[in-house]
Write a structure and sequence with these properties.
Blueprint (H helix, E strand, L loop, with lengths): L2 H7 L23 H16 L2 E8 L7 H14 L6 E5 L7 H4 L8 E3 L2 E3 L1 E3 L3 E5 L15 H14 L5 E7 L6 H9 L5 E6 L3 H16 L4 E12 L6 E2 L6 H9 L3 E7 L1 H9 L3 H4 L4 H17 L5
Parallel strand pairs: 1-7, 1-8, 2-6, 2-7, 8-9, 9-11
Antiparallel strand pairs: 3-4, 5-6, 9-10
């Protein structure tokens, strides 16, 4: 069953503009389900083998700005010499937000004989999200874990990602079905970036994300502390709204790398709402500089990881 059939079966009306996708195996009346799963696994491995580095962005907790970090890291990578070689998979099936942040809301996945084709974003980034399949903002995806896992695996296996330097996966909060599916499905994950904010509440939950990653034998690239301090644009006074140092504290306690701090900046929210990546519009700001430094560290770390 392909993603379009899955949506129809579960009562989700599909958005217009997408052709019907016909997979090579149906799982009904022809190929048995086990043969279909084996074939999907082969397609998944073949698709992922053309991507040099697979990076998972994880938080364990909601409200830490993980999708914002994902979108801007992807854009920063594209700017830094990877034009047309960056993809983003929005694995938050029930609450996708990457298309809005990258200015491609309202676009649709197209389909052809090879499979599904990603939506092309600025800097020729390739984006796949459940949002591209929903007919309206009011349409909910009311799925249990197995259906979400099925959709994610199809996005990995059936999408024509092509040859990429980076595929960045934006996960929903927590360490549940979506996170487990991604970590167990993608071969040779290059690393996991864990996002937190400085508060102690966030630290407690994010520690679980580090342990989760280690249990699944995936390398932890490091921790990013988002919303770390605020500098008033009028008077220059620095205010630690969510405190400062929580990310570095976790890194030291759990013996993982600390990738850097991203200061709280109101223009990040404004740019995300307008669909313009912050690192492009405000490239000289302290927050954009922080993103650039984090990307440099990630690139350096991935050079030592076997692909």
């Amino acid at each position: 069953m392909n993603i379009y059939s899955l949506c129809r079966k579960e009562g989700i009306g599909l958005a217009g503009g997408s052709k019907e996708f016909k997979p090579t195996a149906t799982g009904r009346g022809g190929r048995d389900p086990e043969a279909e799963r084996d074939e999907q696994e082969l397609r998944l491995k073949a698709s992922m083998s053309r991507i040099k580095h697979k990076i998972v962005v994880l938080s364990g907790k909601g409200g830490v700005g993980k999708s914002t970090v994902t979108a801007n890291l992807a854009m920063a990578l594209a700017i830094r010499g990877h034009f047309g070689r960056v993809g983003v998979l929005d694995a938050d099936i029930t609450g996708p937000s990457i298309p809005k942040m990258l200015g491609v809301r309202g676009r649709r996945l197209d389909a052809g004989s090879p499979g599904l084709f990603p939506v092309v974003a600025p800097f020729n980034m390739r984006i796949v999200s459940m949002d591209f399949l929903l007919p309206s903002d009011e349409t909910p995806v009311i799925w249990r874990g197995p259906l979400k896992s099925m959709a994610i695996r199809q996005f990995l296996a059936e999408v024509v990602w092509g040859d990429l330097d980076f595929l960045i996966v934006d996960l929903p909060p927590g360490t549940g079905d979506e996170a487990l599916t991604i970590m167990q499905s993608i071969p040779n994950i290059g690393g996991v970036v864990i996002v937190t904010i400085p508060s102690e509440v966030s630290q407690i939950v994010v520690k679980k994300a580090v342990t989760f990653t280690r249990k699944l034998n995936a390398p932890v690239l490091g921790i990013v502390e988002n919303m770390s301090g605020f500098v008033c644009p009028k008077c220059g006074t620095e205010v630690n709204i969510f405190r400062v140092g929580g990310g570095q504290k976790i890194a030291e306690e759990l013996r993982v790398r600390f990738l850097g701090r991203i200061p709280l900046d109101p223009t990040i929210c404004e740019d995300s709402d307008e669909g313009t990546p912050f690192v492009v519009r405000h490239s000289e700001s302290p927050a954009a500089t922080a993103f650039a430094e984090i990307v440099k560290k990630i690139e350096g770390l991935l050079e030592t990881v076997p692909t």
